[in-house]
């Protein structure tokens, strides 16, 4: 079976990180799956949090791997072991709780991301991510 080139249909893909974020599969207009290897090696390194306009599913593939979550009830750190998952709808950012930690993330293909300063909670910016089928 071919293990190179674009991944479609019956193509096999090793889920290993080679960058911070890489989309590996997508159903345009519906969902996309990506490999997320957080840049931060611990929660203390995180300076900003993000929130998508739709929930995201984080599945720990190798780890442990962690998330800083602020859902309006205060900030907390959650560390996931391989095979554990968490549906996130609030502000968040990831960190590697181990050298090789990473997540598989499932999200919509059309969304807006809001960024806030982790300490002050002040709004930093908003970024619209349109589905590629909506791009001109």
Q: Nutshell version of this structure?
A:
This protein is 0% helix and 50% strand. It has 136 residues and is mainly beta.
Task: Give a written overview of the molecule.
By secondary structure, the protein is mostly beta strands. The chain has no helices and 11 strands. The strands form 3 sheets. Strands 1-2-9-4-7 form a 5-stranded antiparallel sheet, with no helix packed on it. Strands 3-10-11 form a 3-stranded antiparallel sheet, with no helix packed on it. It has a 3-stranded antiparallel sheet with strand order 6-5-8, with no helix packed on it. The chain is globular.
Average pLDDT reading: 90
How many β-strands, per DSSP? 11
Based on CA inertia axes, which overall geometry fits?
A: globular
What's the N-to-C terminus distance? 35 Å
Rg of Cα set? 15 Å
Biggest sheet features: 5 strands, antiparallel
Number of helices: 0
List strands and helices in order, with pairings.
Blueprint: E1 21-27, E2 31-36, E3 48-52, E4 56-62, E5 65-70, E6 75-80, E7 85-88, E8 91-96, E9 102-108, E10 111-117, E11 123-129
Antiparallel strand pairs: 1-2, 2-9, 3-10, 4-7, 4-9, 5-6, 5-8, 10-11
